[in-house]
Amino acid sequence: MELNICHLYPDILNLYGDRGNIITMKRRLEGRGIKVNIDECSIGQPLNADKYDIFFIGGGQDFEQEVLLRDLSSGKAQDIRTAVEEEKTFLAICGGYQMLGEYYKTWDGVQLDFIGAIGVHTIGAKERMIGNYMFRTTPESGDTVVVGFENHSGKTYLSEQVAPLGMMLSGNGNNGEDKTEGARYKNVFGTYSHGSLLPKNPVLCDFILQTALNHRYDGAEPLAPLDDTLELNAHRYMQERLSHNG
Ligand SMILES: NC(=O)CC[C@H](N)C(=O)O
């Protein structure tokens, strides 16, 4: 078996080591003898979307998001919308997550029209939401506790067609108001979690990889367990600290 991963805008959207998510997916697949091919696709490069099983988009600040608008509208936005509807697997972090949505109105009133691949929109607030945080994914997204780090001024709101990725246990998540965190639409996993998400959350990583394998291979076997002692220690350490913060 093999999976093809596309890292979108790796040179522009890569806050807080978001690239670590790519390394983690690669290692966890190779640990099961599954071949992984990783391509990078940035400004000015055509996106050969049919080739890929997983698309990864990291986070970026308002400025970087604005810089990408022209490149997206030159064709990539449509390619991404099509891949989402074809139920390809996406993992999008913070600014990358916002970008898959409809629009982002920054706190100082600039409206960035994004690609509308998922029914979410984002409104900037003056006060940033920053800190370690924790949420539990919904049963449809693995029912697992995720620890991470958020840093955003955008407050994201989900339309009725889009489910949250999870519900907050500690911290702000989508908007600090409705207790939701991230988005799940078809096989898109959007989240505010940097930090880096997948190294500390191997259960979520395997859930995402399994989603992509099931899409590519009919009757794909469940992924075999790995030795996750180190990863789960890091996870437990964060979970314990965050449990005390409420
Ligand atoms: N960390 C990020 O990706 C930031 C995203 C967005 N620019 C915000 O501040 O809301």
From TrEMBL:
Name used for this protein in its record: Lipid II isoglutaminyl synthase (glutamine-hydrolyzing) subunit GatD
Enzyme nomenclature, EC number: 6.3.5.13, 3.5.1.2
Annotated active site: 94, 194
Ligand binding (substrate): 128
Membrane spanning residue stretches: none
Keywords, in A-Z order: Cell shape, Cell wall biogenesis/degradation, Glutamine amidotransferase, Hydrolase, Ligase, Peptidoglycan synthesis
Involved pathway(s): Cell wall biogenesis; peptidoglycan biosynthesis
Source organism phylogeny: Bacteria, Bacillati, Bacillota, Clostridia, Eubacteriales
PANTHER family according to UniProt: DETHIOBIOTIN SYNTHETASE, LIPID II ISOGLUTAMINYL SYNTHASE (GLUTAMINE-HYDROLYZING) SUBUNIT GATD
Family listed: Belongs to the CobB/CobQ family. GatD subfamily.
UniProt subunit comment: Forms a heterodimer with MurT.
Cell wall biogenesis/degradation listed as a keyword: yes
Record's catalysed reaction(s): beta-D-GlcNAc-(1->4)-Mur2Ac(oyl-L-Ala-gamma-D-Glu-L-Lys-D-Ala-D-Ala)-di-trans,octa-cis-undecaprenyl diphosphate + L-glutamine + ATP + H2O = beta-D-GlcNAc-(1->4)-Mur2Ac(oyl-L-Ala-D-isoglutaminyl-L-Lys-D-Ala-D-Ala)-di-trans,octa-cis-undecaprenyl diphosphate + L-glutamate + ADP + phosphate + H(+); L-glutamine + H2O = L-glutamate + NH4(+)
InterPro entries named in the record: Class_I_gatase-like, CobQ_GATase1, GATase_3, Lipid_II_synth_GatD
